[in-house]
Amino acid sequence: MRRIVFIIILLPALFTFCGPTPEEIASNAFTRAQKLYEAKQFNDTKLLLDSIIENLPGQIEYVTRSEDLLRKINTSEQEQNLIFLDSLLQAKEEELKPLMKNFRKSNEYGAKEILIHKRQKPENSYGRTFIRAHLDMDGNFYISSRYTGDYWLHHNQIKVYYNKKSATTEKVKEDGFLNRHFEDNGTKWEVVNYKDGKDNGVIDFIAANYDKSLKVQFIGKKYYYIVMEKFDKEAIRDANEISFVLKDITHIKQEIKNTKYQLSQLKPGGR
């Protein structure tokens, strides 16, 4: 590596002294680059090729040959990267399959496709007071507290606890969107969404203690208490785990897209 750096530094300096012609300098440097390439020292090869292109622009033959070899190296690296990403994607998709057994995809509740736990479907949860898991196919995940009753709580946060351990969400202001309420035939409905980290560790607490008898306190102008159903705890635990896998898959797919774009740019006439 020191030798390569020395050559790169030396190239521009050689023009100011008597000695090899620019063509000879370019030829010697390119020959050295070829040997490095054959030895699979690709980073050093790329450094030397870049130096030829930058410092010897008048040597068209060797600049062109350097660009061709550089393109060959970059193409090979991107192709290997694509193979790795494809295998990584397959592994993540296999990891996802068993986690999805209790979830189904749905586009019935908005423009974006979401995942719903089979026991938390709206038709199964009408009139229930519970904590719902919200998950989309990009891995974005949050929870909401849903209260149905005969009187208003005007709740804006929840506390989940067992024994002396607990976690409490941040307060969410009533705004008709993240915190909204409505009435239907005398029944009061309240929905509070804890997005952007406003769950304040409640998700992790439920996921870590899903096998415990967890109680929930709805906190507002009045209070309300429930004991979490087993399937609600499992829905939050599983959705939390799935969210990390889906985020990995989303990231890998974007990397694959970027790599394919880089490969298209490396083709002659691609730029």
Features:
271 residues, 10 strands, 7 helices, six-stranded antiparallel sheet, alpha+beta, four-stranded antiparallel sheet
Structure, explained:
It contains 7 helices and 10 strands. The protein is 48% helix and 21% strand. The model has no long low-confidence stretch (mean pLDDT 92). A 6-stranded antiparallel beta sheet has the order 1-2-3-4-8-7. Strands 6-5-9-10 form a 4-stranded antiparallel beta sheet, with helices on one face. The chain is α+β, with helices and mostly antiparallel strands and 271 residues long. β7 (179-184) and β8 form a beta hairpin. The two termini are 31 Å apart. The protein has 2 domains: 2-96; 107-253, no CATH class. The protein has helices at residues 2-13, 22-38, 42-55, 60-99, 122-125, 202-208, 230-266; strands spanning 103-106, 114-117, 130-136, 141-149, 157-162, 165-168, 179-184, 187-194, 215-219, 223-227.
Q: Helix- and strand-based class?
A: alpha+beta
Shape field: elongated
State the helicity in percent bands.
40-55%
How many separate domains? Answer: 2
Mean pLDDT: 92
- Intertermini distance: 31 Å
Give a count of the beta strands, DSSP E runs of length 2 or more: 10
Q: pLDDT under 50 segments (min length 5)?
A: none
What is the count of helical runs? 7
What order do the SSEs take from the amino end to the carboxyl end, as H and E? HHHHEEHEEEEEEHEEH
Largest sheet: 6 strands, antiparallel
- Rg, Cα atoms, Å: 30 Å
Strand content: 15-25%
Strand order of the largest sheet: 1-2-3-4-8-7
Précis, in short:
The chain has 271 residues and is an alpha+beta fold.
